[in-house]
Amino acid sequence: MKVLMLNGPGLASAIQQAGYDHVSLELIEQTCIRTCQDLALEPDFRQSADDQQIVQWLRQDLTSASALLINPLSTQAAEAAGYAAALVRALDEHAPATLPIIEVHLSNPFVDAQAQPLRPTGCNVGLLCGFGLRGYVLAIQALHRQLAANS
Description:
This protein is α/β, with parallel strands linked by helices. The chain has helices spanning 11-17, 25-38, 51-61, 77-94, 134-150; strands at residues 2-7, 42-47, 67-71, 101-105, 125-129. The mean pLDDT is 87.
């Protein structure tokens, strides 16, 4: 079962701003891949600084995934609303209602009014925030449990 893991623009700078000195994009990727492999899941980890690339991956690859983990970050506050709307549209149009989806944030997105969680209406999205790197592990474990329950 393939877990599509998408990380949007600004992840590297968010790591630095949040003070996660021991965390890097490479460590996040390694941790996600190892956690998936330990649970017999197929990891598909991706990151792009281009918000349109994230939307395109959602449109093209959701149907071949068994689950989705997404950290949608955006560093451009002025463009964040348009990017979030495009992500929600892509999820609503392309995510099967039964697809397990978890949105992950290293820190708490509720602190910053510009960074709000996604709110699609056509699918159910869980949210993990404020757990740092551990949030990715918890999300993968939760997706694994959902997949096992649906099998």
